[in-house]
Amino acid sequence: MKVVDVHASVNEDLCKGCKTCEMVCPVYAITVGKREKKFKVEINHKRCVGCWNCEQRCPEHAVEMKPCDPYIIGTDVSQFDYNEIEALCRKARFHPKQLVCYCSGSRAEELAAAILSGAKTPDALVLATGVGAGCGIECNQPILRFLESAGLSFERRKQSFQWLGRTITVWEVPSKLKEDFPVFRFEEDRQLFDRIINASVEP
Amino acid sequence: MSGAPINPAAPRNSQYGVDPKYIVKRGADLEGMTSVLLNELIPDMPPVIYPNGRGPSVIKEETERALATVDFSKIKPGHRVNILASHHGFTFLGGEPYAEMLRTIKDVVMSETGAREVRLRAGLGMRFRETEEYIKAHGLDDYFEGKALGIAPIDAGIPIETKLGTLYGLRKAYDGDVIIHAHNSDVREVHFHRQVDRAVKPFGMSYARCETRSTYHMNLGPRGANFVARSIFESDFVQDKYGFSVFMIMSPQGVVNVDADNDLYALNDRTTVGGMKYYGKIISLFGEIDGCIAVLDFPCPVPYVFAAGVIYANMINANIDLFDLDNPLPPYTWYTETFYDHRGRPLIPEIPPVNPAIKMVVHNYAWTGYPAVFFAEQTPTIVVGEEQAKHFDRDPMNLNYMKHALLARELNAAMAFAYETTGTDKVIIFDGAMGGLNVSSSLAELLLKVAPSVCDRVENTLIPKWLDQRDIDASLLGAIP
């Protein structure tokens, strides 16, 4: 769950049309086009999650984050059978109460609930939970792991740098690597993760 | 023996911190503060070349000396050469030593190889314009003739096939024919890297996309994750471009020397041993503090503010031995943070608590741009100044920070509350003071008392164990300054 209190705004006089803002947006809220020899930047404020990616990467410093009436994006976990939530979390190899986003404070159960609500793509999960609308870095793999565990595949947008792909987890490290590089203690870390995932769920 | 407080690092203009005009009083100016010199605590600290009164020219000379040992033959005159740097190096000593090392690498590469297209690609953490700020502040854009660039984890990626499958680097990091890895050796985030492949880590972080960084912090575990950087570095893609590495070798007192090598693993072994020798004692000494108020007072995000050359995250973790790989989980890593439930309770009993010796945190000056709510949740925290509180409220990574912190209008009031509430008069200030540590008299007394036995334990018991766990030849200890 995240409180959105700013929206992106573009000074089109400064825009050079490089489309960086469009490419770094996690929810595809920005479209850069051209109209009468001037670049036109459309920002869909219904999708903007106030993550600041566009403001931080615009090479022309043309994006400004402007305060908006605060509103909450999030998914209510209680609307679903918790057994379903729990099953999906464990399939994605997360404890339901485990934190998945340091910035929004969202937990695995919320990603599961968002998927049960119908979110089918990474951007839809961001919009439904606020996960991915802070640093935009660390929750990347939890989002992709949840989608895969729910059997959902998605096609990457060409006009985007984001959501390149799900990567390896500790459960998938080849045995030979574990044997060849004992200093990394893959197996002990896997066991630690398993203890976390299998811990009981306290209300 | 203790003396007057040492001048703290000055506040810095940055979009990630409040305007320096709001930092009206520093922790070092508080009544009852004193300083302890690192040499008094740890007599065998190596001599430093910077700061030494000679200015950055000594860094240039030392970098040239180190580069004289390097084989440049991979670089041809028509090649585009990328010097890969990181934000961390700029946080030392005002950033000028690292900037001078980068300038010198460029000059030497051009003169030795005839290459004209030498570019700077400076990676960063979560503050996507931070290295842009350093590039501008140190005139590196001009020095690199407009070819100095900050690169962020959400920028265009490039897939890299590794022993761990496909991982993703930053396209701009690898858009040259040859790459030069230019970094710093301090142990810094030892809670993450655990002094395993520390010199290799930027390949999995500063030069990597968010997918790779998330793999490191979410997918592979607190020790296994360190294989991410190695797998990228050893990939055919990176090896095809890799030229050599240049490191600014740090101790808690400053720059010891510059080291360079075509063989990154040889350099890694030296920095691993040096990190244990130079930093193991000060971090272990922090572990002896039985109760204190920590004052944060440095231009960096909360876990990265400095005291005695180490970061506050090392203090948060000082209740366990971070170098000991038998400890699976430090009290603070991003893995540990995820292992607390919605009520703030650990999901399993074996999660170690954050250092209980820190009774309260007075946040006098620290930046946003890093998710820091965990620290305020785990340790009572007072933020000084309404502007700073508002600054955190605006940061998308810290929207909940002030929900867990108190606000004091000024530093004296915050300290009065902290003294009264905690009952301790021991204070440690993370303010970047060089050569020593600003503390209260009571803490100075404790540190000076316990330092000899800590040094003896680290030297004779712990370092041999740490080296053995990493299969590193102990004779290397004698080969570093």
Considering the chains and any ligands shown, give keywords for the structure.
heterodimer, A: 203 residues, alpha+beta, two-stranded antiparallel ribbon, 8 helices, 4 strands, 16% strand, B: 481 residues, Rossmann fold, five-stranded parallel sheet, 33% helix, globular
Which helices and strands occur, and which strands form pairs?
The complex is a heterodimer of chains A (203) and B (481).
Chain A: E1 2-10, H1 20-24, E2 30-35, E3 38-43, H2 53-57, E4 63-73, H3 82-91, H4 108-116, H5 122-129, H6 140-149, H7 175-180, H8 186-197
Antiparallel strand pairs in A: 1-4, 2-3
Helix pairs in contact in A: 3-4, 4-6
Chain B: E1 33-37, H1 38-41, H2 57-67, E2 80-86, H3 96-113, E3 117-123, H4 130-137, H5 140-143, E4 148-151, E5 157-162, E6 165-170, E7 178-184, H6 190-193, H7 210-219, H8 227-233, H9 236-241, E8 242-251, E9 254-261, H10 264-286, E10 292-301, E11 306-307, E12 310-311, H11 312-316, H12 334-338, E13 358-367, H13 373-378, E14 381-384, H14 386-394, E15 405-408, H15 411-422, E16 427-430, E17 436-440, H16 441-469
